[in-house]
Amino acid sequence: MTQLDTTHPGPAFGDDVVLLTVPADGGYLGVLRTATAGLAARLHFALDEIEDLRIAVDEACAMLLAIATRDAELECRFTVTEDALSVEVTVSTVKGAKLPSESSFAWKVLTALTTSAEAEATGRHATIRLLTRRTEL
Question: Which residues form the Histidine kinase/HSP90-like ATPase domain (predicted)?
Answer without folding.
Answer: 23-90
